[in-house]
Predict the structure.
Amino acid sequence: MGIRKIIKIDEEKCDGCGQCVPACAEGALQVIDGKARLVSETYCDGLGACLGECSQNAIFIEEREAKDFDTMETKKPLTNLNSMGKEEPEFEMPTSLPHASCPGSLSRQIRTLDSTPARSRTGSPAGELSRLTNWPVQLTLAPVNAPYFRNAKLLISADCVPFAACNFHDRFLEGRVLLVGCPKLDNMEFYRNKLTDILNKNKIQSIDIAYMEVPCCFGLVVLVKMALENSGKNIPVTLRKLGIDGEITEETTIF
């Protein structure tokens, strides 16, 4: 271990937007507890590709004693995605998982139909427009402090719902911020922590839950209830259960 260049993050300035994460090809950065963090010194090459992506000027280069950059170490997040929690990490990560610095995980707020009435999609029938207002939509990847969570109406959908429901955008998505996940295949403890953090750090107006009639899918409802209890928030929740034919079989408003 010697003196070398390495990034440093000013936590006071960092707003947790996550734009720096996909800029680092080595996976050295993650948003943890609402702040960008250096996951491991060995992942950072000190070249500063992430600096230009920070709108808050919260990242800079310093020279200090640090572990050597190791290209082999940077490959570990890819092989460890399915073993989180089995080994003790350098940080406790209750609200963020590695995602190999995928450029597609950059937080984006998509303009709404009201602001772009003429927006259309090549190959789409006339009048059929996307109602999606945020990216990413996967709960694992969504930054806790993403601007689209401010005063948001959340739609938390099971992965299968958009495939089963005809006209998903018009029936469920319009005017809402979308988060998707699978209560059977994904890490529910991680989802509970992540959703609790989102509720704690943002003013959420309402939550709609769309889930399938299969028994395991009800885990999505349990997840949201636990996150609400943990956050202490009193937010109206609407449940919509769908049959595999895409029709709503049950609709309930709770809390």
